[in-house]
Amino acid sequence: MLLKTFGWSFAITAAGLALAGVLWGWQGLAIVAILSVLEISLSFDNAVINAGILRKMNAFWQRIFLTVGILIAVFGMRLVFPVVIVAITAKLGPIEAVDLAINNKDRYEELVTAAHPAIAAFGGMFLLMIFLDFIFEDRDIKWLDWLEKPLARLGKLDTLSTVVSLVVLLVAATTLATAVPVHGGDGTVDKAATVLLAGIGGLVTYLIVGGVSGFFEDRLEQEEEEAEEEAEKAPAKSGGGSVVGLAGKAAFFMFLYLEVIDASFSFDGVIGAFAITNDIFIMALGLGIGAMYIRSLTVFLVRKGTLDDYVYLEHGAHYAIGALAVILLITIKYEIKEVVTGLVGIVLIGLSFLSSVRRNRREAEAGGDSGAKAEVSSGV
Known about the structure:
InterPro entries: DUF475. It holds the Pfam family DUF475. This protein is 82% helix and 1% strand. It is built from 13 helices and two strands; from the N terminus they run αααααααββαααααα.
């Protein structure tokens, strides 16, 4: 099970480190290894969130997530995305941006860093919407009752998540973004308009992608219920064709949703990687290896049923998402070390795991006590 799920990750790690050693020597190999660990530590909560969505998809789409998805993650977000950001913000052509990334690494790093307020606003708003939609939903299983019960009652207002997110964005734009320190200089610059525009873009992206995937997911569940009812009435009748087709549409849009989530999670890793290297190829290779492990871990969590066994893990991951969203918005003006970001997520998920273990232990003890009482009452 472990080798089957992580086999590609192990193989790509070996090949990637060997390639790094050949191209850049021992120093390059060490940097790639460090970047891989950085990506895994920053994105562990991403794996838990992804698993909650991926378990609704069939084996085919899980393979797509591991193959096509990793290509998008590595080449799209870790290699192409920073170049596109530079091209847009510096008003350069694609070829000029690539040439800058290869031949003028310091200027390239400066431009990517200058674009950070827009990146942080977009990613921060997208992740904040994920957290708010989770925390405002009334769930049968609650981790922090004292907090989640009143928030679930407030969540009966359908647009509350959007309203709260817009308020947070306005506060960030009018406080954090009005005096952003200039990279490599002593002055400040007003990025309020940029942050507002990028933040609204992140919000709209979430509403479109999440709304479409949710629509098809609801349709899929409805079709499955109808198919089950028909099967009960006429067991010999086959009615699965339409369900398979609709499942494909639902899975496709959920796949897009997963990729946007991964993109939002990768922002801090890409920016943080510049503290280690400004070579885009070393960066893409190191972060790509880490991203592969996150995807393998996602599939592992799904196939092992870990989220069903440890019911608070999803809660912890969503709280970590909320923390990351706030951290991203704060980094519009203030620098926060990547180790802090990674530790916040790991601590929250660790606490939710321990809470799940204690819950399982209590239920097992309660079940044992009930069984003993039943034996006594029956005269056994």
